[in-house]
Amino acid sequence: MIRKHRRTWPWHIVTGLILVIAAYGLWYSSTLISYEWRWNRVPQYFAYHAEEAQRAADFGRVESIGEQDGQAKVILLGDSAGEQALLVERDSLQVAEGDDVAEGDVVGVTRHWQAGPLLWGLWTTLWISVLAGAFGLVIGLATGLCRLSKNPTLRDVSGIYVELVRGTPLLVQLFIFYFFIGTVLNLSREFAGVAALALFTGAYVGEIVRAGVQSITRGQDEAARSLGLSAGQSMRHVILPQAFRRVLPPLAGQFISLVKDTSLVSVIAITELTKSGREAITTSFSTFEIWFCVAGLYLLINLPLSRIASRLEKRLGKSD
Predict the structure, then answer these.
(1) Structural contact between residues 216 and 242, judged by C-beta atoms closer than 8 angstroms
(2) Fewer CB atoms < 10 Å away: N or C end of the chain?
(3) Which CATH number describes the domain made up of 117-319?
(4) pTM listed for this prediction
(5) What is the rounded distance in angstroms from the CA atom of residue 115 to the CA atom of residue 126?
């Protein structure tokens, strides 16, 4: 039987029309609130030209002013420090040949590119997400196995941990961990933030691992044990590899949620991406522009993770 090829291009046109309508609705909404867009203020919060003042090291005078690599080369002759050579931007020169200078006088400035607050916030979000995700994966793996253990104490303790973490808001956990546990143990805010996120993620990863292991038929374990493997060897070499193939997509989804959850660590004074955005708004007064950029940066992190999760689901679906 020959299957007819279904044409999909009309539906792509419908999708395009929906996006156009959504874009028009967004633009029309902005006109109703009479908001003045100032996108020209945004780039400096990603990267900007920083100026560093170059100062005289001693009392003396300006011996000569030349040019080197497009900059002004100023030679200072000090009373005790000897000759001092400074490279400064030509348009920032504040001295002339023969001028007397005192110790600490500004001769000019040098300029160099420097990362702005949004890039620094993005970097903080990335390293917090990576560390919390790595520790959360380890904690979750241990928790999931404890939930399946025959030892009642391990089952009870891991169950209480999972229920407590999943039953309370992350924001409350951050406050408790930083202001109570962090104060008692004298922990830094960065350590407290990573630890709280790791424990929060570990509880959800533990349930994902438990469900993945239980989805493997008992016959797999019985076959491994009949071949002479111990319970630990059977779990490590037979059950877990198959379970991880099934739990990889939900794990990816959990890590995507973790990246967004890092926005809450700003409540304990960690300047991650969201807090950097709020600080940029207070100086630029470009509220919507900054928030759109912050949302775009989160998408920049999460879209690749989402694509990886989608590819894994398709690949695992074919293998099953």
Answers:
(1) yes
(2) N
(3) 1.10.3720.10
(4) 0.82
(5) 15
